[in-house]
Structures are given as structure tokens and as C-alpha cells.
Amino acid sequence: MSDAQRARYVALFAAEARTLLALGRRTVATWQREPDEPAHGAELFRVLHTIKGMAASLAFEELADQVHEGETALARVREGERTADAAWFADAEHLLDALTVRCEAEIVREGGPAAAASTAALGAARGGEVVRVEQGRLDALVADLGGLVTARQELERRAAADAISPVARAALAMARRLDVVQERILQVRMAPLSEILERIPPLVRDLARQLGKEVTIDVQGEALEVDRGILSLLPDPLLHLLRNAVDHGIESPEVRRAAGKRAAGRITLVARHDRDAILVELTDDGGGIDREAIAARERAAGRLDASATLSDDGLLAILARPGFSTAATLTDVSGRGVGLDAVLSRLHQVGASLSLSTVPGRGTAFTLRLPMRLGIVRALVAGVGGERYVLPLTHVAELIAWDPTEAHQVEGRLMLPVREERVPVLDLRRLLGHRGSPPPTHRPAILLEANGQRVALLSDRILGQVDAVVQPVDRPKGMPRWITGATVLDDGRPALMLDLASVV
Amino acid sequence: MAQRILICDDAIFMRTMIADILTGAGYEVAGEAESGLQAVERYKALAPDLVTMDIVMPDMGGIDAVKAIIAHDPNAKILMCSAMGQQQLVVEAVQAGAKDFVVKPFQPARVIEAVQRLLG
User: Fold this and answer.
1) Cα–Cα dist A215/A169, whole Å
2) How many Å apart are CA A373 and CA A351, to the nearest integer?
3) Environment class of residue A187 by beta-carbon count within 10 Å: exposed (0-12), middle (13-18) or buried (19+)?
């Protein structure tokens, strides 16, 4: 078989093996509740058998052998030679975990889709007939849709000036229908988080076994959907953070018992909606990150003032630095793979952000804030001087009208009281180097929230919300990284897109 | 006109691989089925010249599907696709009316040879 053909088979294997392993796990769980139902054994056999066939076809011999042993053990139960007791079910779960790890290793070795497979969603579980579509075709569809959305905004603007003419009414009617089409097309690109999250528990359990830790993992919110382009960026950062949580976060059972904790550490991975974003929170109840040790090291290296302390945000910036390691020596598990800096820069490019909170002795929580969509984003249009800028709603918490007399200088920074809290103020004019016309007296503030921090961003005017079609911009040297792209507004003029998560 | 083949397997991976082998040899894929029930339905709807049939499938396995297809069309040409270690099931399938079998992992030449022999 040719290389291209093999790559295609590996991609199919990746998608199908993952779906089958997830099905296998669900089957074992149900079987445990209904031990007398032979259909569950038959289903598990089909899962193993199908994986074996695929593995053998791709000459993944060790994997095929491992599945075959599993089949043999299962056959003994199905033929009544052995009872499916608790120990057997534990072995079955262990086998599925081990197979998951081996499958992922084979996929990575082949350079296959380590991330969400483009051909995933093969599962029949979600009802209806499932078809496979090449990712490139979906991307092209969204790109074309972008042009159409821009044209439609222009049409709507012109129609609004002449709302009673029949042509204008027809144009507006068409625009409304296009709304529906746009929604449906973007839906096609959406995939459930379960495609990634379902694969996490076995990997974590396997890691824990390798490291002699006891860990339980709980995953919630798998049904939420995000754009496939975002989904495919998730495995690397999640695995990176999980490896660190198991390796450095969760203490050994002895240490935990001595600290009055349960011997088994607990990791939770919870996804939920927050405004126009999806939050993925990864929490461990381990020892927390040793802030003082890291601060001491930074001071020794002259990177931190002797009197300064490290905030969670400052800590994250250090953790993300290329080549950073908290452990005195790298373990085999967390020492390998790409660094946090690399995985984060890819996430920042799509407008995602990461925040950290850690408490000594209690554990660490990382929160990933992800946009739900790529290509076309809901955004706020803000005016500064004569220019307009669009800000994706991912990090916009709320708009506040404020009175300049309410703001106070605190340690040289302008702070604005927002309910119980004081929030630092950033001026878009200053950020953008805007000179010329003086600012209006009343300036709306946009409350941004990212990386666990909040900032009030002053603009001159808020001009409304749009569905912005994101277009990449040429990036001359020195262009701030929070300028993430450009879009064309309804009057046909371009506007820069600002994603200010990184300045918050 | 190219002869038309119905591919029955619950794994897209396997269906793709078989389809590649068959179309590479000039055959036409009449359709695909991912369960035994679907195989029987599609056989009736598509009247293909030949069927490749996996054994382990959900919603009626391959052997029961062979029985149902032969009951509908005693002259149906069915090629079983089995994994290693399923000799007993292959024998059962042949008794039910399957004409030949190939073993996974597939050797393309072996598959083509079996198909050519059945289609004459």
C-alpha cells in the first residue's frame, strides 16, 4: 500500500479505534450492572475483534496480540469457564486502558492524527446516519460562507437606508435566511468534546500506574460542542497539564495519608459554557505548586525583585517558559513531549487563554477558556477616534458605563471599582498609540476577563455586535500579538480584530 | 459494465480497505452495509453480483445474514471475510451458503483471486 493510502488507513484506524474503545468502556460498565446479560459480552467481543482486525491490517502486531489475549480471556467468560466477577471487570477495564494507550502510541508513531481525527464522529451513537467529510471541504465551505456573510452585511446596510422598497425587503428576507444557513454550516464543523475527553481517563489511569500513584479521574461536560479546529488543539495542552498533575501535583499515597488526605488523588476535568466561550477546568487535589520555591529560584536568577511575590498569573508565565521544570529531575513521564509554551502559543492563536490557581496542600486548578468557533466569531465593535476595532466576545464579561470620578490611582495604576472589586483600567487609545482627536467625555468600558484576571478597557464608543469573518493579517515585525486578524465591516471597510486576552 | 459488489463489515476501516482493493481491480462498489440486517436489506435493494461478508457484526451477525440472503436468492455469491481463528464459523457460513472465504489481514491478490473465481 502507498504512503498516502497508509496515512488514510491510519486516520480511519485512529477514529474508529477510539470510538470502539469508548464503546468498550461503556459496555464493561453496563455489563457490570447487568452481569447476566450475554449481549454485553458479545458487544465487547465485537469491539475487540474489530480492533484486532484493523491492527493486523496495519501490521500493528503487538497491539493485535494484546487484543487477541483479551479476546481469549473474554471467550472463557462467554463460554462459562470463568465468572465475570469484580476482579475480571477490573482486568477488562485495565485492558481497555492499556489498549487505548497502545493505540495512541501507534497513531503518533505513524504521524497520524494525534488530535481529534478529521474522520472522527464515526460513532453511530448520536443517531441518524453519519457521513464522513474531508476537513478541507468543511474549511472551504466556511471560507466561502465568510465572503457571503460580508456581502450580506453590505446588502443589509444599503437596504436599511431604503427599507420600504421591495428590493430592500427581499434583501432583508434573504439575509434572515442566510442567518439560518450560516448557523447550520458552522454547526457542521462542531464536534463534541467527548471525542477528546473520553480518551483522557484511561491515559490518566495508565500514567498513575506507571508512577505508582493512586488517582481517580472524573470527567464532566463531554457533550458540549466546539469547532473541530479548536478541538484538535486540545489534546496536547490537556495531556501536558494532566501529566504534570499526576506526576508533580498528586502526592504519593503515603504522603497523602500523612497529610490526612484520601490515599487516592482526585483529578476532575469539567467543561462548561461561560458566555460565548467554553471553559475546561482541570483540577487536582494534590500538593499545589510550590510558589515559594519557584519565587526563590526566580529571585536567585535576578528575574524577580527580592520583595516581590508571585501571583498565580506570574507563576503561570514562569511555568509556560520554554524549558521550565518544577521537579529537581525530570521524570520519564512529564519530561517528554512539547513544552507548555509551545502548546499555549497555538491556543493563543485561536483566541484561547489559560489561567491558573494553586493552593499549597490543597491542589491546583487550570482553566482553559476556548472560543466555541473559528472562522466567524461573535464580536463587539468598538470605536476609537475615527477607527473601529472588533473584539471577540470570548473574553468580554460586560460593558460598564462609568464615571471618571470613580476611578482612583492605586500604586501608579488607574483602578475602577466594579461592584466589590477594583479592576485595573487599560485605555485602548494608549494601547493602540492613537493620537489626534481628543476622547469623548463619556467613554464606555469593556470588562474583559481572561487568564483569571479582569481589566476594564476604555474605548470611545461601542458600535454594536457583529458576526465577524476572521481573516488573517500579514504580520510585520513588532506587530502586537493581540492583533489577531482583520475583518470587513458592513460598510465594506476593514477593521482590525483585537483579542486582548494576552494583555489582561 | 463493471460487476457490482456489496461490502458488509461493521468497520469503516475494513470497508474502505476492501473497496480500495476491489475498485483497484476494476470492480464497482454497489453499496456498503455495517450490520447483518443492513446487509440483507441492501442485498434485496441493490441485487449486487457479489457480497463480501464480515462475520462479527452488530444487529445480526454475518452468518445469519448469509442464511437470510440465500433464502432470498439461492444463487447469491457471498465471500466471507473472517479473522484468524474463526475456522469453525467459516465452516458454518459455507454450510449456510457462502461460496468462499478470505482471511484478515487481507492480501489484495488473494481477495481479487477469490472474487474473480466466484464471478467467473
Assistant:
1) 62
2) 10
3) exposed
Q: How distant is the alpha carbon of residue A28 from its chain centre?
A: 29
Range of the domain at B28: 4-119
Per-residue burial over A488-502, b = 16 or more CB atoms within 10 Å of its CB, e = otherwise: bbbeeeebbbbbbbe
Say yes or no for a CB contact (<8 Å) between A12 and B12: yes
- B57–A56 C-beta distance less than 8 A: no
CA distance B81 to B99: 11
In this prediction the pTM is: 0.57
Q: What residues in A contact B84, CB-CB < 8 Å?
A: 56
Q: What is the DSSP string of B40-96?
A: HHHHHHH--SEEEEESS-SSS-HHHHHHHHHHH-TT--EEEEE-TT-HHHHHHHHHH
Average pLDDT, chain A: 82
Per-residue confidence (pLDDT) for residue A325, from 0 to 100: 57
Q: Which of the residue ranges A157-166, A247-256, B96-105 would you say has the lowest mean pLDDT?
A: A157-166
The arithmetic mean of pLDDT across residues B39-43, rounded, is 95
Alpha-helical segments (H) within B10-61: 12-24, 36-46
ipTM value of the model?
Answer: 0.90
Nearest to B106 among A43, A57, A124 (CB): A57
As to burial, measured by CB atoms within 10 angstroms (0-12 exposed, 13-18 middle, 19+ buried), residue A471 is: middle
Q: Within an 8 Å CB–CB cutoff, is residue B23 touching chain A?
A: no
pLDDT of residue A504: 66
Q: What is the CATH number of the domain that holds B76?
A: 3.40.50.2300
Mean pLDDT of A85-104: 87
pLDDT exceeds cutoff 50 at A122: no
What whole-number distance in Å separates Cα of residue A232 and Cα of residue A189?
12
Interchain CB distance below 8 Å, B13 and A12: yes
A202-240 per-position pLDDT tens digit: 889 888 988 889 999 999 988 888 888 888 888 888 888
**End-to-end Cα distance, chain A:** 52
If residue A50 lies in a helix (H) or strand (E), which one and from where to where?
helix A38-57
What is the nearest CA distance from A198 to chain B, expressed in angstroms?
Answer: 20
Residue A51 has pLDDT above 90, yes or no: yes
Structural domains in chain B (count): 1
Closest C-alpha among A499, A481, A495, A500 to residue A385: A495
* C-alpha cell read off for A115: 488530535
Q: Which chain B residue has its CA at the smallest distance from A52's CA?
A: B83
